[in-house]
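Practice problem: predict the structure.
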Amino acid sequence: MSRCSWHSEVERFFDGETVAADAVETHLRQCPQCAAYCEQARQLREGVGQLVQREQISDMQFPAFMEGIRESITPPPARRHGGLWAALSLSTAALLIAIAAFFLFQGGPEPVRATEVEFVSTELEGATVHWYGDEGGITTVEINLAEDDIL
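Answer:
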């Protein structure tokens, strides 16, 4: 639906800002679209007017009223996290990071190595066990079975 060319002039008339009030009134009698628009605007203004509650503020209440407005307009100041607790928290965090880095870069514990074989045995009948170690620290254990015992 297109607007009438008088739409903006009807708005000014409704707000009491037009200089050609007689011409707009004549147009409203002839244009049902502008007349309906003006009626909707009037109903909207009346509905809003019923919702508005007007209260008077006494001189004693005015400073508190203005302070409430200032508080709702300006954000509260940011809290400073200074002092002993902030320094303690920062120190604790730095200590935890240092400990974690130490264990991370240390590589962990050394693997357990058996450097010396003290005793070898087997429960297999007819098996012989031999062992020997080399200069590099590697120990070899050899188990020999009789030929007829192998399945």
